[in-house]
């Protein structure tokens, strides 16, 4: 399951985007960052569920804003089948500082969530790095 979230709110339900945004199918054709929108992009890469370990979601954050950014956190909201939020959490990315064009990764490990993550919303929070 994949999701691409720009500044507009994009959610996924069973792999289908629920609002208009650049779809994941566009990524193989992107040859350089000039073709990406001037945004901080967050993408959920894969989900995993195991009874003993709970649910997990990992992905990447791409800095294409044109400036260095810092204090990057990936935020996750999981919805139930009726689109009611069940859980909201955030994790820092690795690394938490990115130059223009940099890529960070993140992973949510939710031991208390006892099913696969299917309907979710991702958002990246960050601040400008004025020292760069």
Word description of this protein:
- The protein has 132 residues and is mainly beta.
- It has one domain: Sandwich (Immunoglobulin-like).
- It is elongated.
- It starts with a strand and ends with a strand.
- The N terminus is likely disordered.
Number of strands: 10
What is the CATH class? Mainly Beta
H and E order:
EEEEEEEEEE
Give a short account of the largest sheet.
6 strands, antiparallel
Percentage of residues in strands: over 45%
Helical stretch count? 0
Structural class: mainly beta
Tell me the domain tally: 1
> Can you tell me the CATH architecture?
Sandwich
Indicate the topology.
Layout: E1 3-5, E2 11-13, E3 16-17, E4 40-50, E5 54-63, E6 69-79, E7 85-92, E8 97-98, E9 103-110, E10 119-128
Antiparallel strand pairs: 1-4, 2-3, 2-10, 4-5, 5-9, 6-7, 6-8, 6-10
